[in-house]
Design a protein that fits this description.
With about 450 residues, the chain is mostly helical. The chain has helices at about 15-25, 30-40, 45-70, 75-85, 85-125, 130-145, 145-165, 170-195, 200-210, 215-230, 235-240, 250-280, 295-300, 305-340, 345-365, 380-415, 420-425, 425-450. The structure holds tryptophan (TRP). Tryptophan (TRP) binds next to helix 1, helix 2, helix 10 and helix 14.
Length: about 450
């Protein structure tokens, strides 16, 4: 007997899709990572290279992923199954679902710290630890507390599950429509505050003056790798979001808008952070510690800093939340599409499983600090495996699949739906896309992979 199939979910509007996908893209990568890697690798010189990477690799692969999703109306595993039915390619889909899980398991830990820091800001505890070293010690003390660390990880994960639980339109889309504009407004307010501080010019020039001497060969690979992470590429998150699109949507224009928003937010975040860091005389090169060690001190040194601190960590938490939602959605969509599970059950079961794998990452800063595999603690290992190995591998294989296995003949027929104007008015954009997906993406991403493995 044929099973009665419930209609697959869809986005309510094109704008809803763009905001949800931008929500996935804009995350810790933009606000926490981008400013400090740009600062360390030559400021505007790095940004220049990064923009090229976004244009020739990021955007074309994003278009490809969304296209695979919209064509097949499936999760990553189902998408490959539908287009190729080969075991190898189906396993690429699995690699994506697995990578999503692994990223989620450490992402919720950092996001949990951000959530916890909203409360630190409200309690005014930054004013008690208002020196660079006391602030760093305070952070270390907090993450060494199992209850604090694990407690906020769980709280953040439950928030993520809540949105995914309510489904594509009522949960993810509705949430993004509220959270993304809010994020933008808060960030603009923080950037204006930063720019009006005395001495902010030094921050602007740190970020926007090209320092070519700091731009090394590896900086280029860092830019490429980051272009990938920040656009949520390589594991089928954008594929899954694309699978909820109707066929009349214009993939070219929506992907371009997503990339534009992601880049804009990263740049404004850089301005907001470095103007404030320089104006208050703090050290700009604290690297990953910039947000949790340096910024709390920065806030205590500016007028109204108490409120700006709360706003900042609230902003960071929402940014992380809309990204974590997209990671959980990939896993959930796999079990809903392929295994016929109910969404609610999938969310509860895989939220629980995520929690279990998040525990060792969370405990990496305390109980399990000395537990090392290949010289890395659990947290760093999860980050390295997913971000440096699985994502580039996935991204490379996805472009190879589109260009060489599925083939442009079929891909272009699909791409044309909703984007006829580009095919007739600007055919050179289509040719450029083909060249980037066929040659540039696989080769350049392969170099990133070799660099991650220490071969290059
Ligand atoms: N893009 C997000 C960020 O910049 C992180 C993220 C969400 C992600 N979903 C992803 C990264 C899927 C890779 C793949 O923080």
């Amino acid at each position: 007997m044929a099973k009665t199939k419930i209609a697959r979910e869809n986005w309510g509007s094109k704008f809803g899709f763009i905001l949800a996908a931008a929500g996935s893209a804009i995350g810790l990568g933009n606000i926490w990572k981008f400013p400090y890697i740009a600062g360390e690798n030559g400021g505007a010189a790095f940004i220049f290279v990064y923009l090229i990477c976004i244009a020739i690799i990021g955007l074309p692969v994003l278009i490809g992923e969304v296209l695979l999703g919209r064509t097949t109306q499936r999760n990553p595993v189902g998408a490959f199954k539908k287009l190729s039915n080969s075991k190898f390619w189906i396993s690429v889909g699995f690699l994506g679902v697995l990578a999503g899980f692994i990223i989620l398991s450490f992402y919720v830990v950092i996001a949990g710290w951000s959530l916890g820091y909203i409360f630190e800001a409200i309690n005014g505890s930054f004013y008690k630890f208002n020196q660079a070293y006391t602030s760093a010690n305070h952070f270390t003390m907090l993450i060494q507390s199992v209850t604090w660390n694990l407690g906020f990880t769980i709280a953040f994960l439950l928030l993520t599950m809540l949105f995914v639980y309510f489904g594509v339109q009522k949960g993810i889309e509705k949430g993004s429509k509220i959270m993304m504009p809010l994020l933008f407004i808060i960030l603009v307010v923080l950037a204006i505050k930063g720019l009006t501080l005395d001495g902010s010019e030094k921050g602007v020039s740190f970020l926007l003056n090209p320092n070519w001497k700091l731009l090394h060969g590896t900086s280029i690979l860092i830019a490429l790798g980051h272009a990938f992470f920040t656009l949520s590429l390589g594991m089928g998150a954008m594929l899954t979001y694309g699978s909820y699109l109707k066929k009349d949507s214009n993939i070219f224009s929506s992907s371009t808008q997503i990339v534009f928003l992601d880049t804009l937010i990263a740049l404004i975040a850089g301005i907001a952070i470095f103007t404030a860091v320089f104006a208050t005389g703090q050290n700009p090169s604290a690297g990953p510690g910039l947000i949790f060690h340096t910024l709390p001190v920065v806030f205590t040194k500016m007028s109204g800093g108490y409120y700006f601190a709360i706003l900042f960590f609230f902003l960071l938490t929402i940014a992380a939340l809309t990204s974590a939602i997209s990671l959980l959605e990939v896993v959930v969509s796999y079990f809903v599409d392929e295994k016929g599970w109910k969404r609610h059950n999938a969310v509860i079961v895989f939220g629980g499983v995520t929690f279990l794998i998040a525990v060792p990452s969370s405990l990496s800063s305390n109980v399990l600090a000395d537990f090392h595999i290949f010289g890395l603690n659990f947290f760093d290992l999860a980050d390295f495996l997913a971000s440096n190995i699985m994502l580039p591998l996935g991204g490379m294989l996805i472009s190879i699949f589109i260009a060489w296995v599925w083939g442009f003949d079929k891909a272009l027929v699909e791409l044309k739906q909703g984007a006829e104007n580009i095919f007739t008015d600007k055919p050179y954009i289509i040719s450029a896309w083909k060249i980037f997906v066929k040659y540039f993406a696989p080769v350049l991403i392969f170099l990133v992979l070799l660099n991650s493995l220490g071969i290059l």
